[in-house]
Amino acid sequence: MNIIENAQYNIGHICTRRQCERGLGDKTAFRWISAFQKKVDYSFRDLDRESSRFSNALRLLDFTAGDIFFTFLPKMPEQFFCFLGALKLQLICGILFSNFGDEAIVDRLGDAKAKGIVTQKNLLKKIIRIHDKLPNLKYIFVVDIDEHLSTDILSYPALMKQSSDDFVALPTAPDTPSVLHYTSGSTGKPKGVLHVHQSILHQSKTAREVLNLTDSDIFWCTADQGWITGTSYGIIGPWSLGVTQIHYGGGYDAKLWFDLLEKEAVTIWYSAPTALRMLMREATTFFKSYNLNALRHIFSVGEPLNPEVIAWARATLGKDIYDTWFQTETGGIMIANRPGIEIRPGSMGMPVSGIDAAIIADGGEHLGNNRQGTLCLKTGWSAMFVSYLNSDTTYRQKFRDGYYYSGDTAVRDEKGYYWFKGRSDDVINTGGHLVSPFEVESSLLEIEEVAESGVIGAPDKLLFEKVVAFVHLHKQYVWSKELEVKIKLYVGNKLSSIATPQEIIMVTSIPKNKSGKIMRRVLKARYLGQDTEDLSTLED
Fold first, then answer.
1. pLDDT of residue 188
2. What is the CATH number of the domain that holds 217?
3. Which of 357, 442, 448, 450 is nearest to 404 (CA)?
4. What is the pLDDT of residue 539?
5. CA distance 490 to 443
6. Residues 448, 382 within the same domain
7. What pLDDT sits at residue 536?
8. Same domain, 376 and 498
9. What is the count of structural domains for the chain?
10. Which CATH number fits the domain that encloses residue 494?
């Protein structure tokens, strides 16, 4: 199917109006299932109408192409209406995790100079607390209040009632900015990863060729829309193909998830290794009562998938799990195990069609099979990010000699499969979310009892990596369980629950080199009981 017609690359248009024009207006675009099991079906015509109303509401408030807009919502239908409506108007749209703390929100909205945000009443207080730090934030939309609270805090339902559902997206060029995601770095503030509307070409192709999505499928992607997976494959890829999705508003619950898989006859399921490892904790007898005959394929993304999980799924569910690899910067799946090729358990799989991958040494040498180096991708795919917002120098550093340097280290075997070995920086991958140790260290130092801090990621059977904080207290303070709780609450409220240390270790000093940089590799080696290797640069 050709998703582009009349040179119209607009993601919002293709996922809604284009599907109606294909004759799919009455087809269910998604079944919304709340955390309390209330179900509501939305057709592609509904999706087009509601997103168009939001486009018109934004236009009446003088939002124009290139303005930056964010959603700050839990999983709910309005997430999709607002996201696609903003894109129809050629706004740049970002999605924030609903569990973000104040500083995480300020960092992203402030860096982006966001003009508007949509949120929920119970999250509004966070925005109000930091509003004075966001001079560019002109409008706050609230989805669950009936009347406007002020000239800048507006009722979403009231605006939608006043807005026409007749909106036609202007022709949108392929290089028009579209989606903005923020990702953590190891040594600084989050970076805004900017994509363009032509990303839909790769997202649609991989949804079809890798995930094997067809018109007859019922698809469930469990990812939050604040994560690149949740936008690329929980919104854009499936709806560009006219595929029906399940969207569930609750959290992980083995029984509820498997009830949903069976009752909704899900055919393609895309989830995370952390969730799959949690399922392995259930008794084998738990799964015997479920009929999963409708389920054709299970896919995984976020962190490396253990071979043990694949073996478990084969033995317990009678299903294979196909691991996939991509990053916020790549915009879509780059390397994958997938139907049609042999699964090599523990591997990332093979590059998808149109993607040229290579293992490259620090000096630029292209390495042969079974030699470890940086995983790089030849530039030019349609979903490739086009900038780090306000960080041109950092962006340029990711490219060399026509290749994007992913920051992941890997090896390629003799059959062309790639195997993840680690990160070349200090970013922590916990439960599929990237956490900056620098950000956690900085927040720890704001706690009056803490004199020094160092943060690492350590192997974890469930989360892949857990956040471990090393803390040196000021001499007048002593360690206590109450202080541990205080530290965890502070980090969770300021950054997010994802960044909260799972383990806090008291130390008498934090190892630093002679220039004052925290030597995280030393902390990690000590934690794991390994050789700390060269300590020649350690400060006296």
1. 64
2. 3.40.50.12780
3. 357
4. 56
5. 8
6. no
7. 40
8. no
9. 2
10. 3.30.300.30
Same domain, 371 and 442: no
Residue 122 and residue 181: Cα distance in Å, rounded? 23
Is residue 391 a part of any domain in this protein? yes
pLDDT of residue 189: 77
Please tell me the total number of residues recorded for the chain in this structure.
Answer: 540
Same structural domain for residues 380 and 503? no
CA 485, 491, 493, 497 dihedral sign is negative
Q: Tell me: the pLDDT tens digits for 213-231? A: 999 999 999 999 999 999 9
CA triplet 320, 324, 328: central angle to 5 degrees?
155
Sign of the four-CA dihedral 515, 520, 526, 527: positive
State both tokens at 288. Answer: 């015997």
Under-70 pLDDT residues of the chain: 185-188, 513-517, 533-540
Assess whether 327 and 189 both reside in one domain: yes
Q: Where is 423: in which H helix or E strand?
A: strand 418-423
Q: Determine the Cα–Cα distance for residues 111 and 203; give it in Å rounded to an integer.
A: 27
The CA distance from 416 to 235, in Å, is 31
CA–CA gap between residue 350 and residue 215 (Å, rounded): 26
Instruction: Please say whether the beta carbons of 460 and 433 come within 8 A.
Output: no
Residue 464 and residue 395: Cα distance in Å, rounded?
Answer: 28
**Residue finishing a domain among 377, 409, 441:** 409
**Among 376, 409, 442, residue at a domain's last position:** 409
In a domain, 156, yes or no: yes
Same domain, 296 and 340: yes
List the alpha helices (DSSP H) in 198-316.
199-209, 228-231, 237-240, 254-263, 273-279, 284-288, 307-316
Q: Which of 99, 104, 135, 103 is nearest to 120 (CA)?
A: 99
Question: How does the average pLDDT of the chain come out, rounded?
Answer: 93
Dist CA 348 CA 417 (whole Å): 7
Cβ within 8 Å of residue 279, ≥6 positions away: 254, 257
Q: What is the pLDDT of residue 438?
A: 78
| 352 Cβ neighbours under 8 A, 6+ residues apart | 206, 209, 210, 333, 334, 335, 336, 338
Q: Residue 208 contacts by C-beta under 8 Å, 6 or more apart in sequence?
A: 214, 241
Report how far residue 233's alpha carbon sits from residue 256's, in angstroms, rounded to the nearest whole number: 22
**Looking at residue 537, what is its pLDDT?**
44
Per-residue DSSP letters for 447-500? STTEEEEEEEEEEETTTEEEEEEEEEE-TT----HHHHHHHHHHHHHHTBGGGS
Strand, coil or helix: what is 520?
helix
Domain that holds residue 270: 11-409
Q: Which region, left, alpha or beta, applies to residue 265 given φ > 0 means left and ψ of -120 to 50 means alpha?
A: left
> What DSSP string runs through 312-356?
HHHHHTS--EEEEE--TTT-S--EE--TTS---TTS-BEEPTT--
Query: Is 120 in the same domain as 261?
Result: yes
The pLDDT assigned to 95 comes to 97
pLDDT of residue 512: 78
